[in-house]
Here is the input.
Amino acid sequence: MADGELSAREAERAVWDVIVVGTGMGGGMLGHSLARAGRRVLFVEKGRSTLPGTKGTIRAAMPELAEPRAARSPATYYDALARAGRSTDEIEDISGRFAKRFVPFIGAGTGGSSALYGMVCERFFAQDFTPRQNFHDPGDSTVPEAWPISYDQLSPWYAQAEKLLGVRGAPDPLRPEAADVNLPAAPPFSADNQPLVEHLTGQGLHPYHLPMACDYTDGCATCQAHLCARSCKNDAARNGVLPALSEHGAHLLDQCRVLRLEADRTRVQHVIAEHHNDTLALKATVVVLAAGALATPVLLLNSRSGDWPNGLANGSDYVGRNLMRHLMDWIEVWPERGCKITAENKEVGLNDFYFWEGQKYGTVQSAGAMANLASMDMLTNQPGWQPKMLRMVSPAVRPIYDRFFNGGLVLVPMMEDLPYLDNRVLPSDRPGADDRQRLRLRYRLHASEIERRGVFVRQIKEVLKPFRTLTLRTGANNSTLGHVCGTCRFGTDPQTSVLDAHNRAHELDNLYVVDASFFPSSAGLNPSLTVAANALRVAEHLNQAHFAT
Here is the structure.
């Protein structure tokens, strides 16, 4: 069939070169690379396809705003989320005294979370690849001395990923290694951002234009948190999955949730999946997991068997552990008196406090208007299924909200958190009857995060003292699941890692993981470009190790 379409039974009868579970930045880029090399690739995606031509897709706005009536019942609400490329999974946060359940604001569908992301595609610092040295007292953290690969080894793959994703931006003046990147220029700073840039520069700091995977078409608002309606957002769906299907013969099964992997002691034999109430047993020479750093470890833990009593590939007991999720707080700033910022304007980066006084903190980015970001926060911080945001848009409340909370430019201090064995994701102990995936999460801040976060936020507010500011400390809230990573880390020691340096499971010959699960540290920057670059690196390894002719 054309353009990647095939029936589930046809997919089951085939023996694929590679089955890629998940179509986010890791799976999309790896699958595209392998399909272009002539491999028979099957993408298996639990969410819906939102590729061009798919009927019913919600674009240009979050579904809660595009279809507010969908919130009248759970069924219609979850359907709207799915048509907008959003996850309908339920997470049970068991970190505190009382469990809290919520639907995470992450992607599910073609492109995964990259279909919703703000398009920042930035290389890590070279020093990020030797992380432990960057912290005064990492305490009981498992942060390693070094990644099993270096910046120099990943650099050519960074360059390939930047080209595939059409990244544009300016070099960070604080990074010598950024001087040789030579990205195409982004548009000038907008009128909303320019006063802040001038203030920061006047303080002796070094703001720069964030590298963005964006085509900047006329009227482009650098959309984030929803699907792009103008085809200017470069993501794993548009730049990976779509050309893999339409140009290189790959195939896609969407709305197909992988339940478990069947394996003997050395190889995965079948991928067991559910597709429209049918159970499939899919077969491939190589199986690549790219379902995200929450779903991938849960899938492995759910793949227990006589040969794998603790979960597949879990001889180290590290599967699901070392969960990281950047600590992201919001500081709204009014850089000019009476300003009324309404656009998203994700443009400014600042790394003067990334490494500061011998300690490591993170980056600062402009993220647009409060109205858009506050909507995201309210959607992911409610005990029930119905969004609180719907109450905020009522005529009685809106004028008060606009007067006191709207109109400023939001800055996001994004701080690196460290990995700990007790921060983890686990399968749910209460499977549901509505076909929604459920999992449990345990994550608490340790001493290093608490101390560094306080210093980081205070230092940024000091720089902004001339302006009116409003701080929303969302970083401690586990519902703010930005940039989840670390739950199947790679490393050289099978006792303290799940994957080897090529992202292959230590204990299995044909199982790989290429989503952000593989990170042994979270760094302090957006993970998308590093996930994409590493996926291209792993794809080249697969071509040589498994399919060389």
